[in-house]
Amino acid sequence: MTMEFKTAVIGLGSMGYGMALSCLRAGQKVWGADINPDAVGKFAMAGGQGGAFPTDLNAVVVVVLNAAQTEAVLFGATGVVATLSPGVVVLGCATVPPAFAREMEARCAAAGVHYLDAPISGGAAKAAQGALSIMAAGRPEAFRAARPVLDACAQTVFELGSEAGPGSAMKAVNQLLAGVHIAAMAEALTFGMTQGIAPAAFVEVISKCAGTSWMLENRAPHIVDGDYSPRSQINIWPKDLGIVLDVAKSAGFAAPITAATLQQYMVAVGMGLGAEDDAAIAKVYARNVGLTLPGPRDPAAEG
Amino acid sequence: MTMEFKTAVIGLGSMGYGMALSCLRAGQKVWGADINPDAVGKFAMAGGQGGAFPTDLNAVVVVVLNAAQTEAVLFGATGVVATLSPGVVVLGCATVPPAFAREMEARCAAAGVHYLDAPISGGAAKAAQGALSIMAAGRPEAFRAARPVLDACAQTVFELGSEAGPGSAMKAVNQLLAGVHIAAMAEALTFGMTQGIAPAAFVEVISKCAGTSWMLENRAPHIVDGDYSPRSQINIWPKDLGIVLDVAKSAGFAAPITAATLQQYMVAVGMGLGAEDDAAIAKVYARNVGLTLPGPRDPAAEG
């Protein structure tokens, strides 16, 4: 008789949905949960389980927006931890403060449940391919219990420590840079436009020069194409850079570039761009100086 | 009889010296000039010509610090342009405002001399290998006259326009990003240290994640190694980001991330770090929060 590995994925947004599919593809039996019933229905159509979780889950993957939602799904009125058997593992994948991850580890341990501090990086496409980077930290037994999920979802698992915290710390470091790089790209691209440099020339030249970044190469083409359909939303950045600055404040650490960047995202939110792709930060700069960014491509015109 | 191509390189700093060597290697006869006689002597030992420029130069490559020095060597009391024959080309390689490049083109044209707006990118090692990126703009006849120098010095020549200006504009765009990325790397690395992330772990993980940049991969290892011998100096950045902000101001363009970054470099200059490698911007953050960065490696301890 084959032991079936049973996983629940809580949060079927763009990242969680891809991770749930990756677990399915690895042969696991996967339950999906989301506040949006359409997401659960879509996952059921793709081979997932809907409805109540079974009592013999092996792993719970929490891919919600933030610490408050993570705490609610784990320990709220209908929190899942109280229903889990000893030895089950919870993977916390949201971007949260390191101290929160340590608190979750302790509260799970009190319930006999393992906790892996496991923030994710790579975007929706890599989530769907099972090719994420996971910045993981936790006790050896948490890593052991989580291994089938890590194998299914990740191309690279960074093992950053033997208790929760360093995974979330590294994720915060990564988000600091990613958020700054997107906004700096927009600042440079629009500055170039004021000097007659077309966005397409900016991408072509700078992507081959010392000024390039992963985010520049990934996001600047959205501006060239005038395509702001959300792959990653503006709304992510006030949240994630806010976590960075909260953690920095607790450490007595001044982060002036991060702080200036956060303000630009706040302007974008104020302009009503929160649900657009984060490349829409360029619209803040364009509005301020009176530039017109490229419009959407017209497929009919491209023959 | 073979026509010998005669080039003068004015400014034998780390970039100019490498370009002069690259022209020599391509079979050109090369005169070097520098305010530092030791640099000229070193170049003569490597096969270059010292002493006065001949009257039949084909090209003059100006690789000095800024616009003021460029103007002085071209049009000052002993400026070279007055000595050049019609049809000779001047390559302006310093980082300068686009309007200054247009002015140099006009003043050279009045003397019958071609001007190529030709800022360079890639660092001293690529300069020595003849593998620079050159962001070039100028009239077709300026490109034609400069071709032997471009071929000798560059891996990639971006041809950005048919008059001077766009080369310097693109260089300013690149410097905006490069300067921000170095400082953001230092902000993130030291923030990570406050959360227990060692600099070596930072480089290992983030260089494989969405937060990476060309500058992070190039400069962060200097911090890990505690090696601040100058490959590119802190002093470059108040100058180059100052040009960016001056040009931005003329265009009515607000660049808050660049502005915040420039202030961090100013703190570094105030700490006496101006002549150190630009990775030393990390020392500003470390001092502010009371962190100790890695010291120099002890070769004796490494067996």
Largest sheet of chain A: 5 strands, parallel
The radius of gyration computed from the alpha-carbon positions of chain A, rounded to a whole number of angstroms, is 21 Å
CATH architecture of the largest domain in chain A: 3-Layer(aba) Sandwich
- Give the helix level of chain A as a range of percent: 40-55%
CATH fold category name of the largest domain in chain A: Rossmann fold
Number of helices of chain A: 12
What is the CATH first-level class name of the largest domain in chain A? Alpha Beta
Mean pLDDT across all residues of chain A, rounded?
96
Residue share in β-strands of chain A: 5-15%
At the fourth level of CATH, the homologous superfamily of the largest domain in chain A is NAD(P)-binding Rossmann-like Domain
Q: Which chain pair shows the most residues in contact? A: A-B, 71 and 71 residues
One letter per element, helices H and strands E, the order of chain A comes to EHEHEHEHEEHEHEHHHHHH
Strand order of the largest sheet of chain A: 2-1-3-4-5
Low-confidence stretches of chain A: none
**Secondary structure tally: strands of chain A:** 8
